[in-house]
Write a structure and sequence with these properties.
Layout: E1 4-13, H1 16-32, E2 36-41, E3 55-60, H2 63-71, H3 73-82, E4 87-95
Antiparallel strand pairs: 1-3, 1-4, 2-3
Helix pairs in contact: 1-3
Length: about 100
């Protein structure tokens, strides 16, 4: 079965302190749910229409595992810590080829 990738791109961050608190809790929650953090931070290089936006990439064994991680109590707590309006993100879960 192909791996699955959770890709988060932060379009804007308005509360860096809340984001830092969220990151601590979310990292623990997502790895406890089977995720493996592959990359996080601003891109080293952007090309074409690329923008230097914070990006996080996690690997999961399946779409179901990634969905369950998002819905898990630990990750939901992280989302409460982040709160509305602290960051605008685009999260995608995509299967590898």
């Amino acid at each position: 079965m192909a791996k699955v990738y959770w890709i988060s791109v932060y379009r804007s961050i308005t509360d860096p302190d809340r984001l830092a608190a969220y990151a601590k809790v979310s990292g623990r929650a997502l790895t406890a749910a089977g995720g493996k953090i592959l990359a996080r931070g601003e891109p080293a290089v952007t090309k074409e229409a690329g923008q230097p936006l914070r990006t996080v990439i996690l690997e999961f064994e399946s779409v179901e595992a990634a969905r369950a991680a998002y819905d898990s109590p630990g990750y939901q707590e992280a989302l409460r810590i982040l709160g509305p309006g602290s960051a605008e993100r685009d999260i995608r879960i995509i299967e590898a080829i």
